[in-house]
């Protein structure tokens, strides 16, 4: 369904004022918006009311008061329960719902269809930042769904961070959030901690570890850029270190982690991927051939 692109959005309701929700409210207030807040634990709203937000008398009141409803709850299951009460359902027509909770692509599509049946507009979004960055240019926000609906609320969202529309398919923002933040960032951060723990176990200080780390990050970026054409063409032949070489090295490193008394869950996962790639005949190919192994694992699951 298409949204009305006329007028400026000034009245916003934020449902869920945990750490990220509260940061969103404060950024909207700072930009001069009229913000209504609702939270299951009402006491969390008190500091925001002191700063200028309006406290909704009920969830229905929060939905009725504003044209745009920002959902900053934990996950899609909670938002589904919140929206599905009779008193709220009857107030949804004509409203624009912006989803910032964590969920799955399937749930994003389901929520869009459910809201469309109730004549509400829907934008799926993800805030790619910690609360400390909300309200600054460092806060990146991606959104997907109907472009005209997005364009209508974009000036308001620009008060929260740097906003980008990533696709008309409503689940696209969710997919990108889960793949880049959920899979890559979270696992990469954990790998950083696993590496730091190994260094610490052998007496290297955090400062010594960090003296080498920035260079490795730059190599990682270069390696990713090098691998993109291979992933697009599915051709992993080349003269760089092969899967066989990586497998031998990482198997030894896993043993060293164990010997140092460190947990090695991530390294074990990598070794498992490398062994699987070898069993599939990719031993002489370059490291990015793991992309095919992981894709095949996904298709079989």
Specify the CATH homologous superfamily of the largest domain: NAD(P)-binding Rossmann-like Domain
Main sheet specs: 8 strands, mixed
If helices are DSSP runs of H or I spanning 4 or more residues, what is the number of helices? 12
Which architecture name of the largest domain does CATH use? Answer: 3-Layer(aba) Sandwich
The name of the CATH topology of the largest domain is Rossmann fold
Mean pLDDT: 94
Secondary-structure content class: alpha/beta
Which value, in Å, is the CA radius of gyration?
A: 23 Å
Which residues sit in consecutive blocks of at least 5 with pLDDT less than 50?
A: 1-7
Principal-axes geometry comes out as elongated
> How many extended strands?
8
CATH class of the largest domain: Alpha Beta
Fraction of residues in H or I helices: 40-55%
Pattern of helices and strands: EHEHEHEHHEHEEHEHHHHH
Structure notes:
α11 (265-279) packs across α12. The protein folds into two domains: 11-167, NAD(P)-binding Rossmann-like Domain (Rossmann fold, 3-Layer(aba) Sandwich); 202-300, N-(1-d-carboxylethyl)-l-norvaline Dehydrogenase, domain 2. The longest helix is centred in the middle third of the chain and has 30 residues, at 172-201. It is elongated, with a radius of gyration of 23 Å. Helices cover 53% and strands 13% of the residues. It has 301 residues and is of the alpha/beta class. The two termini are 34 Å apart. Mean pLDDT is 94; it is low at 1-7. An eight-stranded mixed beta sheet has the order 3-2-1-4-5-6-7-8, with helices on both faces. This is NAD(P)-dependent oxidoreductase. Keywords: Oxidoreductase. GO terms for molecular function: NADP binding; oxidoreductase activity.
